[in-house]
Amino acid sequence: MDFPQTFLLIVAFLTGLSFGSFLNVIVYRLPLRKSIATPPSSCPSCSSRLGFVDLIPLFGYLVLHGHCRYCGVKISIRYPLVEMSVGLLFLFTFLKFGFTMTAFYNLTLLYLLTAIALIDLEHRIVPNTLVATGLILGLLMQLPSIFSYWFNVSPVYLTGRSPVDALLGFLAGGAVLLIVFIVSRGGMGAGDVKLIAMIGFYAGLRGTALVLLLAFLFGALVGLTFMALGRLTRKDALPFAPYLSLAAYIQVFWGDLIWNWYINFLI
Ligand SMILES: [Zn+2]
Predict the structure, then answer these.
(1) What is the C-alpha separation between 142 and 153, in angstroms, rounded?
(2) Ligand 1: centre distance to CA 71 (Å)
(3) pTM for this prediction
(4) How far does the centroid of ligand 1 lie from the alpha carbon of residue 60, in Å?
(5) How far is ligand 1, taken at its centre, from the CA of residue 256, in Å?
(6) Distances from the Cα of 74 to the Cαs of 43, 71, 101, 111, 155, in angstroms?
(7) CA 74 to ligand 1 center in whole angstroms
(8) CA–centroid distance, residue 79 to ligand 1 (Å)
(9) Does residue 188 contact residue 180 with C-beta atoms inside 8 Å?
(10) How much distance in Å is there from the Cα of 59 to the middle of ligand 1?
(11) 66, 194, 203, 205 — which has fewest CB within 10 A?
C-alpha cells in the first residue's frame, strides 16, 4: 500500500471517530426529541458544558479516565466503544471499496443502521427520521445512475447498485416484512417494515434476500436461547433492528463471497 493510500485511510479512520462521536449524540438525543445540532454536548449528570479536549473522540475519554471532569460521574464505556467501532467501520469500508461512491453508499447505510440498532435496543423504536434520511441519501447517490439510465447513456453504476435493482430490493424487502407484519398481527413493528424497505434499496434484490435470511436466523437463535433460559416468553416483543443491522454488515462486506459460495455449492 502506497503512502497516499495509507494517509487517506488514517484520515478516514479519524473522520470515522468524529462521526462515531456524532452517532452517540444522535442515539442519545433523537429518542428524546431533542435537537441533534444544539446545544453543544454537556454532562448528562451535572449539565456542565464539555470542553474542547473532553469532546475529542476516544482521547477525551482516556484523558478523563472515564469520569466527568466536573462532577466525577462515571461515563459509560459505550461512548468510546461506539466511537471506535464507527472509526473501524470507516476504515474497513474504504479499505474494501476504495475512495468511491460505492464506499459512501454502503457507509451511509451501515452508519444509519448502527444508530437505529442502538436506539431500538434501548427504546424499542425505529425512528422514522433515520429511515427517511437513509432513503433520501440513497436516492441522491443513485441520481447519476438514474439519469444515465433515463437518457440511455451507457449506464454508470457509481454506487455498485443499479437503480432498478435498488427499486426491486426496496419493494421486495418491504413486501416480505409487510406480510410478516400482517400475519404476526403487529408482533413485528411497523418501523421494521419501513426499515427493511430502506435496507432493500441499498442492498438490491439478492442482497435483501440474504439480509432477511440472516436476520431471521439471528433473531431465532437469540430468541430461542433466551426462551430456553426462561428469560423470555413468546409474547415479548424483541427488537429486530439489531439483527437487520448485523445482517446488513455481513451483506456489505461478505455478501458476494457468500453468494459465490452458494452458487458453487449448487453446481
Ligand atoms: Zn458531570
Answers:
(1) 15
(2) 4
(3) 0.91
(4) 14
(5) 47
(6) 10, 9, 40, 26, 54
(7) 8
(8) 15
(9) yes
(10) 17
(11) 66
CA separation (Å) from 233 to 49, 187, 230, 237? 43, 13, 7, 9
CA of 53 to the centre of ligand 1 (A): 15
Q: Residue 102 corresponds to which amino acid? A: T
State the distance from the centre of ligand 1 to the C-alpha of 45, rounded, in angstroms: 5
CA of 72 to the centre of ligand 1 (A): 6
Query: What distance in angstroms lies between residue 64's CA and the mean position of ligand 1's atoms?
Result: 11
- Matching residue, cell 466511537: 83
Please count the other Cβ atoms lying within 10 Å of the Cβ belonging to residue 75.
19
What does the domain layout of the chain look like in residue ranges?
1-98, 100-267
- The b/e string for 40-58 (b: 16+ C-beta within 10 A; e otherwise) is eeebeeeeeebeeebebbb
Angle between helices 190-228 and 241-266 (to 10 degrees): 80
Rounded to 5 degrees, what are φ and ψ at 199? -60, -40
238 contact partners, CB below 8 Å, separation of at least 6: 219, 222, 223, 232
* Spacing, Cα 38 to ligand 1 middle (Å): 18
